[in-house]
Every structure is written in C-alpha cells, then in structure tokens.
C-alpha cells in the first residue's frame, strides 16, 4: 500500500520503514500467492495494475486490522497481573515493587491475604499468582525471623529459656506469633522449642492479626516473632532467637507457568526487597 501511494518501491519501502529489497521480495511473494501482478513494472513509476487496484480496498482493511491488533496486543501486555501478597508488605514496599515491575513491562495489582488464603486464591483462579509461604529451605526468598520487644536486650540473641518464670501467671512473658507465621513449618517448630525450653503452652500464642500481636507487646515484656524490618517499623528491639533457626520462605505459585517465570526472572531482587528477604541486621 505504501508503494502504491509513494509511486516507487524505494519511497514506499522508506515510508513502511523497511529496506527496499525486503519490500520488493514481499510484493513478489504476494503476487505469486495471489496469482496476478499487483504492479506494472514497465514504467519508472510503480503503478498498480487493474488487479492491484481491485485489491487496494482489501489491503486498506488488512492494514487497519493489523493496527487494531497491535493496539489490542499493547493493551493485553498492560493487563495487570493480580498478585496475592502477605500483609507484612507495607504500602511503600508494594508501591516500589509496582514501580520496578513497570520498568520491566510487568503491570501488577495486589491482593493482601494470609498464607493459606493465598494458595487457595491461585487454586480458584481468583488471582494470577501468589507469593506462597513455604519452608525456608524450599523458598526462592528467605526472611530471617527473631524476637522483638520494647526493651533492648543485653545479649545478641534471645534464648527462650530466659522466658521461664515462677508460678505467677502475671510474670510469664509470652511470644506472639502473627498470622503470616501461623504455618506448620514455623509454628510447630516454635512450639517444639517452647516445650524443650520448659515454657508453658500459653507462653507462645498465635494472634488474630499483626496489629493485635504488636499491641500485646507494647507496654509489656512480651515478644513478637517478626523480621528485623518489621521490628524497625514498629520501633521494637530485635534479636535472633538462640538455638533455633526461624525464617519465612516464599515461592511464586501461579496458574500459568509463564506468569511464575516472568515474576522470578524479571522481579526477583524487587520481590526480595518487598518481602524483606535477607535482612539480618539488628533492628531498633
């Protein structure tokens, strides 16, 4: 079509932004396919043959369809990928992940959910993908956990044995588990450590929400199981737990393998920052 409008193969190819030999080969191939000449090559100008003029309206329609397909493809590429994320990711964390994703032509929307719900949302196809909670040794991302409280500990680690108290219930310090860590590979490990340290069952408690867990720590001697980043955000003093390795593990699960590969390949460092993966510094 560009050749017919420009009147020459050279000018038409330039208008179509392709080399002139490529334009000539494509037209020749189309003529062989259709079984008729589209252009009269007996003159210096590229003039349409009567058959070519009859085909011009169809060519215009094909160009419009191709343009529409490109627009549709662009919109499809910008279609948001709905990602289920833990509530430990702050608004800023998610905004920074979203901004970096756009630079990789990945457009995200987020749905905050608990660990069990995230896996279920993928299964029901209510989200495209999720950052699923898995044992740390199986995760693409690992977030070290420790214990945080309002009082700065003297030691570099906190041993559960130091929470043992006498008969007075009021003197018993507790460790609060937030919902994100209420998963067997973390909760049960901590329960076993509790029992080995001689603590009472009620001294390791699962809270209904992160807010409730933090509220129970404020103004008390209780401790919150959390990451260093969360402790810093809450203004708590954080230390690793002595004698036990506690860490969140995360992996991408998705309904489509391509979505999972896209997130891992393009956004691995950005997701790590969003989750707080790899933070081991002492927080205050």
UniProtKB/TrEMBL annotation:
Belongs to the LysR transcriptional regulatory family. InterPro entries: LysR_HTH_N, WH-like_DNA-bd_sf, WH_DNA-bd_sf. One of its GO terms (molecular function) is DNA-binding transcription factor activity. The keyword Membrane does not apply. Residues 1-49 form the HTH lysR-type domain. It holds the Pfam family HTH_1. It comes from the Bacteria. This is DNA-binding transcriptional LysR family regulator. PROSITE patterns: HTH_LYSR. Gene3D superfamilies: Winged helix-like DNA-binding domain superfamily/Winged helix DNA-binding domain. Keywords: DNA-binding, Transcription, Transcription regulation.
């Amino acid at each position: 079509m560009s050749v017919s409008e420009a009147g020459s193969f050279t000018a038409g190819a330039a208008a179509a932004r392709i080399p002139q030999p490529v334009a000539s080969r494509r037209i020749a191939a189309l003529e062989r396919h259709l079984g008729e000449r589209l252009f009269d090559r007996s003159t210096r100008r590229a003039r349409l043959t009567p058959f070519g003029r009859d085909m011009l309206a169809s060519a215009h329609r094909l160009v419009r369809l191709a343009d529409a397909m490109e627009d549709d493809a662009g919109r499809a590429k910008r279609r948001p990928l709905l990602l289920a994320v833990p509530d430990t990711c702050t608004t800023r964390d998610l905004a920074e992940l979203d901004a970096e994703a756009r630079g990789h032509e990945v457009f995200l929307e987020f749905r905050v959910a608990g660990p069990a719900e995230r896996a279920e949302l993928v299964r029901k196809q209510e989200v495209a993908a999720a950052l699923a909670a898995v044992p740390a040794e199986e995760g693409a991302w690992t977030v070290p956990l420790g214990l945080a409280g309002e009082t700065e500990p003297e030691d570099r680690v906190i041993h559960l044995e130091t929470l043992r108290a006498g008969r007075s219930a009021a003197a018993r310090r507790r460790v609060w588990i937030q919902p994100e860590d209420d998963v067997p590979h973390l909760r049960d490990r901590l329960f076993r450590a509790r029992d080995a340290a001689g603590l009472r069952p009620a001294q390791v408690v699962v809270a209904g929400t992160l807010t409730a867990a933090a509220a129970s720590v404020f103004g008390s001697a209780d401790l919150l199981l959390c990451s260093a980043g969360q402790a810093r955000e809450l203004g708590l003093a954080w230390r690793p737990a002595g004698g036990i390795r506690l860490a969140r593990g995360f992996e991408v699960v998705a309904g489509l393998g391509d979505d999972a590969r896209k997130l891992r390949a393009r956004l691995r460092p950005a997701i790590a920052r969003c989750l707080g993966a790899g933070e081991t510094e002492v927080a205050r």
